[in-house]
Design brief:
The complex is a heterotetramer, with two copies of chain A (414 residues) and two copies of chain C (338 residues). Chain A is an alpha/beta fold and 414 residues long. Chain A folds into two domains: 341 residues, Thiamin diphosphate (ThDP)-binding fold, Pyr/PP domains (Rossmann fold, 3-Layer(aba) Sandwich); 30 residues. Chain A has eleven helices and seven strands. Chain A has a five-stranded parallel beta sheet, sandwiched between helices. Chain A has a two-stranded antiparallel sheet with strand order 4-5. In chain A, strand 4 and strand 5 form a beta hairpin. In chain A, helix 1 packs across helix 10, helix 2 packs across helix 7 and helix 4 packs across helix 10. Chain C is α/β, with parallel strands linked by helices and 338 residues long. Chain C has two domains: 199 residues, 3-Layer(aba) Sandwich (Rossmann fold); 124 residues, Rossmann fold. In chain C, 34% of the residues lie in helices and 18% in strands. In chain C, helix 10 links the parallel strand 13 and strand 14. Chain C is globular and about 60 Å long. The chains are: A alpha/beta (414), C alpha/beta (338). Chains A and C meet through helix 11 of A and helix 3 and helix 12 of C. The structure holds thiamine diphosphate (2 copies) and magnesium ion (2 copies). One thiamine diphosphate (TPP) sits at the interface of chains B and D. One magnesium ion (MG) binds next to strand 4 of chain B.
Chain lengths: 414, 414, 338, 338
Amino acid sequence: MTPKSRLHIPQPSARPGQPPDFSYLSLSEAGSVARPDTDAPAREIENLAQELVRVLDDDGEAKGEWVPDLTPAQLLEALRLMMLTRQLDDRMQRMQRQGKISFYMQSLGEEAVSIGQGMALDAGDMLFPSYRNQGLFILRGTSLVDMMCQCLSNTRDMCKGRQMPIMYHNKEANLFSVSGNLATQYPHAVGWAMASAIKGEDHISASWVGDGSTAEADFHYALTFAAVYQAPVILNVVNNQWAISTFQGFAGGLRRSFAARGLGLGIPGVRVDGNDLLAVYAVTQWAAQRARQGGGPTLVELVTYRGGAHSTSDDPSRYRPKDEWAAFPLGDPIERLKQHMVNTGHWSDEQHTALNDELKKTVIAAWKEAISFGTMSEGPRLDVREMFDDVYAETPQHLKQQREQLLALKRGAQ
Amino acid sequence: MTPKSRLHIPQPSARPGQPPDFSYLSLSEAGSVARPDTDAPAREIENLAQELVRVLDDDGEAKGEWVPDLTPAQLLEALRLMMLTRQLDDRMQRMQRQGKISFYMQSLGEEAVSIGQGMALDAGDMLFPSYRNQGLFILRGTSLVDMMCQCLSNTRDMCKGRQMPIMYHNKEANLFSVSGNLATQYPHAVGWAMASAIKGEDHISASWVGDGSTAEADFHYALTFAAVYQAPVILNVVNNQWAISTFQGFAGGLRRSFAARGLGLGIPGVRVDGNDLLAVYAVTQWAAQRARQGGGPTLVELVTYRGGAHSTSDDPSRYRPKDEWAAFPLGDPIERLKQHMVNTGHWSDEQHTALNDELKKTVIAAWKEAISFGTMSEGPRLDVREMFDDVYAETPQHLKQQREQLLALKRGAQ
Amino acid sequence: MSQMNMIQAINSALDTMMEKDPTVIILGEDVGYFGGVFRCTDGLQAKYGEHRVIDAPISEGGIVGSAIGIGVNGLRPVAEIQFADYIYPGLDQIISELARLRYRSGGEFFSPVTIRTPCGGGIRGGQTHSQSPEALFTHLSGIKTVMPSNPYDAKGLLISAIESDDPVVFFEPKRIYNGPFDGDPNKPAVPWSTHPGGKVPEEYYAIPLGKAAVVEEGDELSIITYGTMVHVAQAAVRIAGVSADIIDVRTLVPLDVETLTQSVEKTGRCLIAHEASKFGGYGAELVATIQEECFWHLQAPIERVAGWETPYPHAFEWDYFPGQERVVAGIRNIMEAV
Amino acid sequence: MSQMNMIQAINSALDTMMEKDPTVIILGEDVGYFGGVFRCTDGLQAKYGEHRVIDAPISEGGIVGSAIGIGVNGLRPVAEIQFADYIYPGLDQIISELARLRYRSGGEFFSPVTIRTPCGGGIRGGQTHSQSPEALFTHLSGIKTVMPSNPYDAKGLLISAIESDDPVVFFEPKRIYNGPFDGDPNKPAVPWSTHPGGKVPEEYYAIPLGKAAVVEEGDELSIITYGTMVHVAQAAVRIAGVSADIIDVRTLVPLDVETLTQSVEKTGRCLIAHEASKFGGYGAELVATIQEECFWHLQAPIERVAGWETPYPHAFEWDYFPGQERVVAGIRNIMEAV
Ligand SMILES: Cc1ncc(C[n+]2csc(CCOP(=O)(O)OP(=O)(O)O)c2C)c(N)n1
Ligand SMILES: Cc1ncc(C[n+]2csc(CCOP(=O)(O)OP(=O)(O)O)c2C)c(N)n1
Ligand SMILES: [Mg+2]
Ligand SMILES: [Mg+2]
């Protein structure tokens, strides 16, 4: 009998009740992948889209050509920022559970992405984050209080109450406004980079999407425009294995790596251990240098795992094994950096615990301050008149009238 | 000085007044590319996306593993259909110039695409053509009169006067309705193939877009869905070097072949000499067999050249050398097949000329018949009442009223 | 007859149709194994298999585009767009292809796609989980547009939508998935069991597309609305103490002009309410149509109560939402007009 | 002062702004070397270079998406969408991003993109080269929408659009690119030199967005329209022999309500005309607004003359187009209403 075409439905390696199985992930040994020159032709470095750039091995040893030039102080700062991100997430997740904020999304398990990549970029580089890049905001100095106030939609909310929690932005820090619409930021980053090249500046841009979001049109637009104009941009795919309930196979992830998606357009792809801060930093630095010297875009796939639920509205126990994260072969980015620093004598378990406690306190203190600017139910409230601002540069007549209508109604109601 | 990022603007190899230059095209020797098994894993046949499958060499000799099993009678039929397509185009182009039809698009120089591919597919396979696939309609038996009547928007127009010329369809012949919107047919073909696989049938589908259209979202949707569900579909990119005034570099064509666009999703790509009917047939047959036996999608790039203007609204002398087509290294598909058949003793110059004359007469006769069903300015006209049909399955109240309104107005005007 | 909320009623409609017609298939993000983020497709993949309830890539354009092809090949796809706020990447395929296919092919090709999508605010979804974009669809020729206001209608209308050979965009006001909502966010939520529309037959039944429902009858005023706002209008009428026809449009296209005009001819006064922004909203068409048909009966300007001309803001959700107070104020305006 | 057709006036606006403001750049399909399929950008690449007049991949979504990023980085992009019929792949970026960026970022980010696109029928373009989709934009908050009816306005309004820090969708009625068109396809075409709007200054000038133009004054009727239909209305008024205000809306959003209501308060009768389908079209909003503002002045129902509820058909172009006869019939209806 000849084989026949049947609709192929991608299958995750394990469902609830089954043992986790990551045998589908192809891994490389730490230190095994060579680091090409940043001006290597795209066709000669296609292996980077297949192999996995890793620096830290399972014992926390840094190995190979990709070991970045980071001082112990820098590493400590990276560790601190990852820990801070996790503490913030933990607190906000709980505040949502207590009904203090309407919604939240953690980056649990993916902290090295934002911190490692953010550190490798210059302050003048413009970042177009997804909703799971809170680490970028922390790294670039957005205060915890500001972030919390955004989540609280309170009187100090940078979004003036207009967006759901986590939709931060930070203009001074060159962090673009997070969108609720998946992948839309990708062509923005390319356009921004095009403008930088038009102006002859040497700032680059970077953007992030999840594995699932690569199926959106904007992914294609961004890659196409970046390739055609050789825009100085780093396009990152955070492959955390899941997109709400669908695993990365539904975005084609089992057929070929996400890093390979640009090869057909001549865009080099680099697949990197997303839980290895050193590798993440090194690869980003490589791509940034390539872009700055006119080498155009790089597509970076960060292999990681979504340690928590998709969002506070999600319950992953319905669709994946509870213990999947624990079995993830690339581990926990914080533990791995910690282990490395302990190994190299720059850190200890005691210091780690102390730092964690300190960060927890920092976060609690920030929360206290944040709620002093109002919560959803108590304290000062945003002025409802602001609802009508910023739709246009100047508020047009009809919006002024609507504002008056609303105020009259509210006066009447009192 | 370190090199710097500047916006890269793709440059065609020649502009009006300059000598044509096709050195950018990478060609393979006829017969030099091996033909893998149809169940070869995608990763093992990536070379097919880079090399160029060619059967006919410059002397019209058929060479190598891809030589298809076509009888002289079949080859003659292919030749005849290509010639007929060209005659039809020529006639219609002239009719447009004379104001008999509002618009036209030739497939001059690309005839082997539709004829070669169409012949390699089964009657039960569903085709989703672009506007430059008139050959498929001819091949599948749409009468010239029907095609002309569509272009005339006359009383026998299959589209009931609703579409511009060339927007044919042929339901019985499994030819989908041509759309004026670029690339939208691509995901339709994939959906159709998915349904075929769901139903367990072994019909496959095929679709066509131009090089320029690959930048549209639908190209990405189609590739993604085809890869994820391993849909039995052949996705074809007709790389005729130009998209109106922009050359294929603006779709990223200079960086990597269009056939390579699906490699990052694990879709095999085959780059084929689009002006070599034998190669076109062979590659299509290969991809069809692969799809039918459950091997999923193939992306086929047909390298050809748009011999004429983009459409009757276009003037290519403004943006490309007048003699570019003559310099195209892959020649003219009709000449090449003719030469092969003359070489093998199955055809002669005299027969060729005679056939051409005969086809010309056929086309003229068809035109005469077609205009008897009305032209834009003379003869019978479509009933204007039909304007309100087929918006919905059943004409709703409001459209009946609008029809009445219009008729009343027309009565009044008389 | 069972007690169902709107999610269950939609699920039941899908189940009924999949059972009845083996060509019905479902396609969408998270609809399969997981059963949908709002659980509308819960249990269906287990029952009908992975080839009929299909998890899709995150690609609304691809979902609509492939659904069209699936429909052309003889199946009857029901596509879910996870939030109406995310339908826009699919608009080109809807406008340029789905809506026009039958027309442009002289009636030969069509694709009977139903697109289900949750819409509307009131769930703290901010500007990307609260939108009501129905007016972008009601202007299109070739598409039908539906928005039910209760579980009974939801099931009956969804069945008709699926059975229709025309493409249908089926909006589900998510604020009333779990219970009717009268516009007062401070009152405790009530379940659908408190509402007659919560009684839903287990079996097949169809509510024809193109028929509005007169939800309440009165003679001083006609309120024309749909979705969540039906319930808000009912509460507002109580507060305002007027006797009003409340008409639930249900099928936005094709519009049941007759039911509307009969009512307005009777009452001479009309208020139109919807959640979407006012300017260029579907309410504008309702005003225009009624004004054209009932001009000589109108005793006061037709008034629209609708969302403001801003995106749907997270913190000011209840100031944005056209709640009871605003509907009552609208009623008073109309009733006082002389 | 020069004689210009609308293509030249648009070209002149672009040229003027590129000269004046080095941050202005152009992006679109075939706009660069070739100068645009309608030649609106002719000569600009030669003058300002390939980095300022940029040929784009065929990807309307990518054009809008990258233009947003370009705008965020301090340049002022003018994107061309080759035909309004092909703007839909860009809708998600327009609706979800361009229109909302300033609002959602608390006023901190914005992108001053202008999107130019030829619209309208009457050129035998069939259903994919004739559409007037303005109503899909006028319902959006955060976007301005413009449609000029003559070269002078086209230049002045386009300059304002480019200078605006708000995103603007700028529709160009292609039927009148080369000359005013009064709706009669059988009459020989006339050039813009026959029309006062064909006189266009070479230099910079701006017509503010948000101001309608009273094209003709009269006292029996107000005709509110825009684009090609302005000319049709003028011809129809002659035929009908009525004394009418003809108002060219010009800026659809924000709407100049005052000019409209002043006129209708004066005349008591109002006809609205546009080429797009009637149901849910922009005209519905005009009816609704005027009805709300001028109800007590209205002596007859407001009548809409618009495209039918079908796609724009190739063979029946002139039956679809709301030409002189239909406008005249509309005028008669209104004038006879008692
Ligand atoms: C255009 C659009 N479609 C759908 C959604 C709903 N949605 C939000 S997150 C998400 C999953 C995204 O998965 P992935 O891209 O892998 O990112 P991750 O959440 O894993 O970081 C979906 C479907 C959305 N926000 N926008
Ligand atoms: C969505 C969309 N955008 C733009 C156009 C206008 N247009 C028609 S054909 C064309 C060029 C297409 O080039 P290509 O895909 O290479 O096909 P070819 O004409 O060379 O066969 C363009 C831009 C269109 N029809 N649809
Ligand atoms: Mg993910
Ligand atoms: Mg081409």
